[in-house]
Write a structure and sequence with these properties.
Blueprint lengths: L18 H13 L1 H20 L4 H12 L10 H4 L7 H7 L2 H10 L6 H9 L21 H15 L11 H10 L7 H15 L4
């Protein structure tokens, strides 16, 4: 008898599960397993940082979902862009910059009660503290707090992961790069909390 293997799991399952997010997780894994695994790691990092920043239970759940599906819009990106084995030129980068809007539309289509709130975080995860990000050029605290958390977790995992054009960086080098992006790309206060989160994880138990 033909059997279908289980869908990729969610690191932090939502309290109110739905078939819609299971479909999204499976579709993302089928489209690009690297992106799917990256999203899973970002989910754990963002959730940990959100806890450290004192987010409520509802905010943490929305953040975890946004982190898990922040790159789901890449399902709609052509292979010559998504799977390009090197740094993207400007025309390809313009296509790649459409993925937050695509992802927000996909998550909104799940019909969950929190779909609009989560989609808003997905939409803004590439905004920058100084207003130079996309898609709307939001600046500073106009960017949702959870999206600012997601930006840091996403950037750290991207730097410490193997990419087609480079080996993974060690944690110290990645943190040094992010440190230079304080008050430009990322929120300096949240980055300080992120460093504290990583130091806590590295500290021996007992």
């Amino acid at each position: 008898m033909f059997s279908i293997p289980p869908a990729p799991g969610l690191s932090i399952p939502p309290e109110n599960d739905s078939c819609g997010i299971a479909v999204l997780a499976t579709a993302l894994d089928e489209r690009d397993s690297y992106t799917d695994q990256h999203c899973d790691r970002v989910c754990l990092l963002a959730h940990g940082l959100g806890e450290r920043c004192g987010l409520s239970g509802a905010q943490l759940e929305q953040l975890a979902l946004a982190a898990r599906f922040h790159d789901v819009g890449k399902i709609g990106i052509r292979d010559d862009v998504l799977l390009h084995p090197g740094r993207l030129d400007e025309p390809r980068m313009e296509k790649m910059r459409t993925h937050p809007e695509r992802g927000a539309r996909l998550f909104a289509a799940t019909g969950r009660d929190d779909a609009a709130a989560v989609a808003r975080l997905i939409l803004h995860h590439h905004e920058a503290w100084d207003g130079s990000g996309y898609p709307h050029g939001l600046q500073g605290e106009d960017i949702p707090l959870e999206a600012r958390i997601l930006t840091i977790a996403d950037g750290y995992d991207a730097l410490t992961s193997r990419r087609p054009y480079r080996a993974p960086m060690d944690a110290g080098d990645a943190l040094a790069i992010l440190d230079r992006e304080k008050n430009r790309l990322i929120d300096a206060r949240l980055f300080g909390e992120f460093r504290g989160l990583l130091r806590g994880r590295d500290r021996p138990a007992g």
